[in-house]
Amino acid sequence: MKKKQALLVVSFGTSFPDSRRKAIDRLEEDLRQQFPERDFFHAYTSSVIRKLIEKNEQIHIPSVEEVMRDIAGFGYEDLLVQPTHVIDGIENHQMKQDICRFQDKIAHIRIGEPLLTEDSDYKACVKAVMGQWTPEPEKDTAIFFMGHGTSHEKNSCYERLNCAFQEQGYSNVYVGTVEALPDLEELVDRIRPYHYKRIIMEPFMLVAGDHAYNDMAGSGSDSWKSVLEKEGFEVVAKIAGLGELQAIRDIYVSHARLAKDF
User: Fold this and answer.
1) Which portions of the chain are predicted below pLDDT 70?
2) Is beta strand 141-147 parallel, antiparallel or unpaired with respect to 5-11?
């Protein structure tokens, strides 16, 4: 008798419906199509986001623990889990802990890696995000990518990503974070010697959500846009999540294919 197989895609989530459709939903669909033999499930790790979606859109998206109870209860014996997290930080580790509680109920569990894991991932991400710049920005222009940032040790991934841009010849590209280091102040210090006049900003996050619209491009006095304009830069904000890029979604699909036993 054929084993019951399931695919679980886990995201942090977003309360911005259009951004969700462009990024998370498209990635979920890509993964669903690549594993047609598996029944599809999804979950969001953010309880705040889940509550907002349920309140505003009357859509229930389960937590990891809730969906794992369902998967185990339905008798699935083989589970493939693919997170859509950018790094193996706090959210990814909490996801693993929630899944671990069900190891005795599901015979075979495999978990794919988040976006930035191997050296090849960093190179592929640089190629993916820079592939959209045609023609290349002028020499008086710097590009700032806003990552999320975390107190977890894996925050070092963002500095590693900075190095990847430099190594591939993008000396005018800088990666900062909204909740950790390098922060905006440090990025401004790094570019001062180069006399850039214009800065293009874009989120380095799966989804262009609250951080992108408010912390990066918002009208508040402490947004990246406002701070940079006060510094005298011409600022252009590009609002698009990484999940909108096929090349980025392909990295997640490849990680699902290479998922390791849990």
Assistant:
1) 1, 134-135
2) unpaired
